[in-house]
What does this fold into?
Amino acid sequence: MTGNLHLGLDVGTTAIKAAVYDSRGVMKASKVCDSGLIADHPGWSSQSMDAIWQICALALASVVSQVGAENIGTVGVCGQGDGLWLLDEDGNPVRDAILWNDQRAVDYVTGWIEDGTADRLARYSRTAIWPGTSGAAFRWLKEHEPDSAARASHSINCKDWVNFNLTGELTTDITDATIPFMDLDTGDYAPAAFSMLGVEELREKMLDAVRAVELNGMVSEAASQKTGLAVGTPVAAGCIDVAAMISGMGLAETGDICLILGTTAVVAVIVEAEPFSGPQPGATLAHPYAEKWIKVLAPLSGASALDWFSSLDTMSYGSADAGESAQRLNAAASSAPAGANGVVFLPFLSGERAPIVAPHATASFLGITSATTQADLARAVMEGTAMSLRQCFEATGAAKPGQIFMTGGGARNALWCDIIASVMNTMIVASDSSDHGTWGAAMLGACAAGTMDVGRPPKRDEALRHHGPDPDLIASYDRLFRLYERYVASSGELWNARRDIMGDQP
It folds into this structure.
């Protein structure tokens, strides 16, 4: 291949993004496509694997047509993590993929938490268990869809499925493989972890894990016809989307911290490999190219919390579109005082997995009075998400840094960045770019093909905004955070009561 451009594909839960870059990270072409969620039961979340590949192929074909296949030298793919993506012995999907935010396995996870299984499992992967992990979802599947479980020959991940369609080769990487069965001390799967969850047969379906910067294979003839990519274009093993974003931000040093405010939220801290010291919140991933780990706490609601609240506003205004609602609510939130006149929002719209694992958790507004306004509620949603991020960060035990890098769609919201800076009492360095995933994937693809130095990845130029904490708000937000913590801690009994009384009713 003689092409000097690098293609990155980010297969997200709500959007699939393709982009082409030069070696300095300058974008030359891009395409964003919506991906469709299937929610045919309250709390369930799935996607058609065939449809995901079709959408990926369309996105790839679009960017290839913009720059020419002959100019694309490498491909890298990242994607949403966790969930259950199963293939039969012929390489066909067994069923729709069960996603990371699915709640159908909630009762199993609740039992594992109560009987200590979750804590014992964390000995290996240093990761909490939640319903949307492959182990929990497969446990549900073998008892509720035994035929599907029996037909499964390979358990893979989202980006592995796309790579398989591109190259015909089945590969996974260590960032995706970590959760929930990897023994980080040995770098291999822990047989005991499968036994703990009652899914021993799943071990033989798992792929051996490689580094993200190793090759998956080359673009096949069939994939070339569908995407326009040249046959033989090298494709990297790739990684989970969070790790790709971290790569795209150039973060590889111990102590580097980033926040990702996308559909879900993420607090990620790069740490040294360390001996097991007891169960920990969140997840631990191997860094895609550095000999380090990434501690990841990813609450289930990020920018999706404001999207949800905006959708209520859209309905109330009839013909108003989502963009208009978001702008209107942002303006309203900016008019409300810090602290939202005493209203606190717990952003548990899909249960919670970090810093607490609470599958039955529900969202709520607390402190509402007859004087509460829509502006107060909008502000409370933004502040509640910021409080969740702070609680996750404090759970990592990391020292507060001088600055934290922030990316994702929510990072473009200046008001939200200001709130997060004051809630966390640190400088937020935000980027208006939301393509760190595609750039990170493209960079890993170039490294896998040997056209970029994995030890010294380029750091591209990009416009950054600095949001410092407001000195007048730090103390009041500290008090509000303590109240938020009390609300969360005292809500567990109510969530359990709701489960006992209401069962699975929405």
User: Anything to note?
Assistant: Residues 75 and 460 are 18 Å apart (CA to CA). The two ends are 54 Å apart (CA to CA). The mean pLDDT is 92. The first strand starts at residue 5 and ends at 11.
